[in-house]
Amino acid sequence: MKSKARRLLINLFLASLIIGICFAILYPILTLLPMIFTDLRELGAPDSIWIPSKFGVNSIEFVFRSILQGKPVIILQSLLYAFSICAIQVFMSAMAGYALARTDFKGRNIVFFLVIFVFLIPRQSFLITQYLHFKHFDVLGLFQLFLGHDVDLINQPITLYLLAIFGFSVNQSLFIFIFRQAFMGMPQELEDAAMIDGAGFYRTYFKVMLPNAVPTILTVAVLAFVWAYGDTYYTNYFHTDGPYFGVIIDKTFKDANNWYINNQARQWFDTADTNELAFEALKQASILTFLTPLLIIYFFVQKRLVENLDRAGIVG
Amino acid sequence: MKKMKYRTSRRVNGFLFVLPWLIGFITFFAVPLKNTILYSFNKVDVGASGGIELAFNGIQNFVDLFVSEVSTDNQPLQRIFFTENVNIFTNLPLIVIFSLFLALLANADFKGRGIVRIIFFLPIVLGLPLIVEWTADSAGRNMIESASGGMFGARMGAQLLLEYTFLPKGVISFLSGVLGNIFQLFTRTGVQTMIFLAGLQSISPSHYEVAKIEGATAYETFWKVTLPLLSNVVVFAVIYTMIDLFLNSTLTEEIYNFAFVKSKIGVGSALSVVYMLNVLVVLGIVLLFLKAVNCIEKN
């Protein structure tokens, strides 16, 4: 009897702990909702905190009309961008990770050390020189030789893809590391069997090893996608005028634009007395709009992500 | 003979597989690294034709950085470095412990575990710098917090502690700092929770069976079985957290500010170099600490 009561108490404690943590994780997002779904004209009504005094979605309408300039396709473009960067990252990192784990070319350990080193050095410390490097891009003086001038790669989409192809997009050395650990954990018999069957290097890799790494691929893909979609570092500095949702919101909601945005809101929605709050509400609405596609995708993949975790071999 | 050929071909192809990365390393990492260090010892000007003009001036950039230059909010740079480092050393253990704790909870068996896991991994998405920055200080949150009397805030907690415990003030201010920061801390846990959960699931159940047969309590099992088996994962999580914290520190803005707003590329590069060294020093300290802990464990 006593132990039963004790167990109940412990369970109760754990349950409240879990609910509390869930609340703490969701809290920053929850606090955005009341303002977003309050009608812009009713903002700042003193008697409403969590439940809007007058429900309205015109702040979200504003995001589509003003921030996206009536082109919701920008969201699709950002998603597509994130997807292609993610695909390139997975493909290239898996290759590098496999080579580091399963082949013993000369200097393998040095390369692995360099991968770790790259991960440890924050990318921001190269902001200046990378920027100048892309501004006057040249490979071994070849462009100088054939074109007579170097190439300006700033504000070109290709810069971002080049970074991903050559392994230096967002946290890509981390992905190489994860793939290396995963391939290290795979049994040697897989490769031996493939060799006995007469499969060459590429066949072994694409037909045997890569399919066996699907859990890892999924884990890396989710991280790569989220980070590419949310990246405002590379996109902002190297392709400022590109159709990236994050960059657009980041630039629009500078404090300097406060007046402009409020003015627009006043014209469209007749928000006479709620100036400061309208700016904030619109900012929050744009965050939510930015986040929604990501959350939808997350809900679809999370189940497989969690199920696969133990097989992803990140641990090694 | 055939075996020989097979092995050589594997070597060659393996090298081909990392070749793109090596090219990237040279063009996108080694050259910028070299230039950053070079610029930090030079007065850098952008010439009329758009080219870079360098004039060696020794450690003048570093002297300027810490003596005459100020940050965007008019503070001396060494103060920014100091606060950033204090932040990292306090938040690092908290985040790692939090994420281990979250993983332990997510690994337990209970009803509704699926939903709880969805929420526990949500920081992977909610931890994007963009979202953290915008939700941290939003008007909506300020309104709610002022209306609810800071019910979920740090003030309340600190007050309770002050009134009902006899803890020294320093401890209370630290605790209330943690409490006030708790939402920020949770946004940084996503990846680590995932890694820890993967680690927990890879521990074979037979370890726990043995512990149970030996009559170990849950507490003992955690310290003697779970944690030692997770030691690799802990190292990884610690390093990841550290890098993540550095990536999101305010120093980044300062580098941008020096280079593109004040047009002092030399000083900005000097700041980058100091920043890099800072990361490596902290990493060294952390690794030494982990090694020491490991030695103590073994004895």
TL;DR of this structure?
Chain A is mainly alpha-helical and 316 residues long. Chain A contains 16 helices and no strands.
Helix content range of chain A: 55-70%
Provide the β-strand percentage band of chain B: under 5%
Helix/strand structural class of chain B: mainly alpha
Count of DSSP-assigned helices of chain A: 16
How many runs of DSSP E, i.e. beta strands of chain A? Answer: 0
* Mean pLDDT reading of chain A: 82
Strand content of chain A: under 5%
- Rg of Cα set of chain A: 25 Å
Computed over alpha carbons, the radius of gyration of chain B is 25 Å
Overall body shape of chain A: flat
Number of strands of chain B: 2
Report the sheet with the most strands of chain B, covering strand number, pairing sense and barrel closure. Answer: 2 strands, antiparallel
- Portion in helices of chain B: over 70%
Mean pLDDT of chain B: 82
The CATH superfamily label of the domain at 71-252 in chain A reads MetI-like
Q: In words, what does this structure look like?
A:
The complex is a heterodimer of chains A (316) and B (299). Chain A is an all-alpha fold and 316 residues long. Helices cover 70% and strands 0% of the residues of chain A. Chain A has helices at residues 2-30, 33-36, 58-67, 73-102, 108-120, 127-135, 142-147, 157-165, 172-184, 188-196, 201-212, 214-230, 233-238, 245-252, 258-269, 275-308. The longest helix of chain A is centred in the last third of the chain and has 34 residues, at 275-308. Chain A starts with a helix and ends in an 8-residue tail after the last helix. The model of chain A has no long low-confidence stretch (mean pLDDT 82). Helices cover 78% and strands 3% of the residues of chain B. The mean pLDDT of chain B is 82. Chain B has a two-stranded antiparallel ribbon with strand order 1-2. Chain B has helices at residues 2-40, 60-67, 77-107, 113-121, 123-126, 129-136, 139-147, 154-164, 169-180, 182-187, 190-202, 205-213, 218-229, 231-247, 251-261, 265-298; strands at residues 42-46, 52-56. Chain B is globular and about 75 Å long. Chains A and B meet through helix 1, helix 2, helix 4, helix 5 and helix 6 of A and helix 1, helix 4, helix 5, helix 6 and helix 7 of B.
